Amino acid sequence: MIGMDFISFLILLVISVVVSLVLHFFLKTSVRGGLESLFGKIVWGWIGAWLGSPVFGYWFPGLNYHAVYIIPAILGSLALLVLMVDLVKSVKGTP
User: Fold this and answer.
1) 45 in Cβ contact with 15 (< 8 Å)
2) What is the band of 69 on the pLDDT scale with cuts at 50, 70, 90?
3) What pLDDT does 1 receive?
4) Going by C-beta distance under 8 Å and a sequence separation of 6 or more, which residues neighbour residue 15?
5) Is-contact 67 8, C-beta < 8 A?
6) Residue 65 β-bridge partners
7) Which pTM does this prediction carry?
């Protein structure tokens, strides 16, 4: 996954944006309000989606594009975003 093509990058970006929007606006899991918090989530969500397949495995060979497996990428993005929000909130001491 180090030398990925542009389509793989876009797929991971779309997964990250969708997961970040759901967490930010619908579930209200935000450390700070505003767009800077959303953009930070998108960056961390992309990293989580990128690590999703190597960490969680390569599931459902029909739901992939080259080395990007959709379900593990969604789970990786979600896991890293929840971990980051929880980590920052616990360090800041906010509930």
Assistant:
1) yes
2) very high
3) 60
4) 45, 49, 70, 73, 74, 77
5) yes
6) 68
7) 0.89
